[in-house]
Records
---
Amino acid sequence: MVTREWDSSLMDCCSPCGTCVMAACLPCILFGKTSERMNNPGQSSYFALNSDCCIFTGLGFMGLSWIYIAIKRTGIREQFGIEGSQVGDWCTAIWCPCCAVLQQDKEVVSRTEYAPVTDGYKIQGGMRMEDQ
């Protein structure tokens, strides 16, 4: 297995601006969106208010959302063959959770960007002939 680095630095957290603001103000939404991308990489749109978002929020009320960040970070790192360790994942999640959530999202976006679209078939309306 080839080991790789993260595509974006942990401190490269100011771009894109909208994602940066979301990571700082509503990290639960960005976390849910990232999890949805991981679970369904071929979807054309992602529902951010999912179970991962709710778990993240619940843990956040107890000051423990960093635990879920670290667990997901390890999963992302292992799935994409990124160098690192669980200790590094936990330290990053504890001391820089917003930057970690943003880096994880950017990583999943960059590595699943060209995944095949797997949205289900949508039935088209029938054809009708107009009376003349």
---
Amino acid sequence: CSRVGSKNKSSARSERGTVLIEFVFAIIIFAAFAYGLLAMSLWGIGAFFIQEAAHEAAERYAVTMDESSAESRALSRLGKWAYAFVKPESVSASVWKDGDSARARVVAEPRIKRLYLYELPQIEKTSLCVFEYRFRRSGEFLW
């Protein structure tokens, strides 16, 4: 009679230990998934801000033909919120003329660079805008 009771106690302890080990593995897998989701989300949101800055720079250059104004507009467009997702010291903007259009490129590094064994790429976005001749040569157009 005493042996039957001891088997039940040891199997109950074994089951509790198994459940605890499974729970620990599940928590580790969930934490890894959550970190990956967070890192990729931050990269994606940062890419959105960088793309918007590239659009702003191309548009400003198409209207004003002033490189420094367009580049500073791109950097000011990022504001404080974008720097939560990208490193502020890594942001660079450039604009140039490409035929009948203005092009802009904004490059930045994400805040989180590594995702486990994978290194997240730097964010590089370009934009194109047709030159606004009507502002510079308003006499050629009927208003």
---
Amino acid sequence: MSCSTVRRCFLAITILAIVLSLAPAQFLKKASNRTNVALIGHIGAIGALPNYDKILDLSRRELLEDGTLGDDFDIEIISRNGCGEAFEGVAAAADLYHIEHVTTFLGPYCNGGKCSETLPVATMANFWNIPIIAYMATSNALSNKKIYKTLIRTSLRTINTIAESTAAFIKHYKWKKVSLVSNVGAAAFEKLTALEPVLKRHGVVVTRKILFDETATVQDMLSSGQLDEIRYNSRVVVVMFSSTRDLTATFRQATAKYGMTEAEYVFIFPWLQENANGASPFVGSDSESLTKVKQTYSNCILIDDMNGFDDRMITPFVERLNSIGLDEKDIDLMNIYGYIALFDALKMFATAGRKVLNQTGNITSVGDGKLMWNAMRRMTIQGKSPSLLNQLLSGS
């Protein structure tokens, strides 16, 4: 994240804290009058995860059926939209806490690039000591538990995990030199700054770092002279564009026209979905996926930490959606990962909440951020994400 973005984040926090601390008392009314309820503030994004509310309802219904939720412990959810250029999610978080009196945050949905709302919201959650469950978060900065003491991630994917996977693959084939290709921008910069030290630790030298403009065309790449930098300095090329505007297909067309064939060069594409953009190229119908992969990634290497997001998991999940009247056309199938992460995030919170409630006998303990964090990081749940347990045990 750039310094200017960080300053904007914390300026937003400061302004909101000052303004909302002056809010009249008559506005501080709880959204729920029930005494057995944990009130969750969900911060989503306009246009992201259509019918997400029904996914949350499905998760809650299953929690009621298995006894995790009941007469002594239930959940209510208030949703707000964020993920805009003006850090609307930060304002939404302040509103949810001060006006609606939520005791937990779910989200924000966005977390990287121009829309890094998770960082300031997690900082506020730590100050207020309430749990925050980030179901789409990938930023390495969030692993700092000195700052984000009440945050749990269920995303399974982080920039660091994909960097470690990429470095391990390169080391396995005993390649010693690589070029890095990315684009200008905060999200891309964070990926590169995570990857470079991992490569160095594995004894891999970065010979060139090539950055293209976010609006670059095939012709721009050809005429920039930067492809020559790659050609004369390495045969292994690691390509990590941001998901703000994926330039992968553009780059592949440019290298093909420039005569950089797969027989001479190894192209490695580490894949990390951050928001709605940047979905894995393997997501979609079989024919669509096969055609896209063949056209863009023929004879290339894709490193995708999908963690088992295949038909064995997706098909049963879609069948569950059918039980509440949803089918594939009612959701964004390209972002099925987001739905499953959201489903599991609510289930994880409720399971931890039940554990804490049983220990303390006090429903307000479910809103104790540090207490809930300790409960969640050592917890086993049967979620839809096959390796969710590993992420929770890491306490990240």
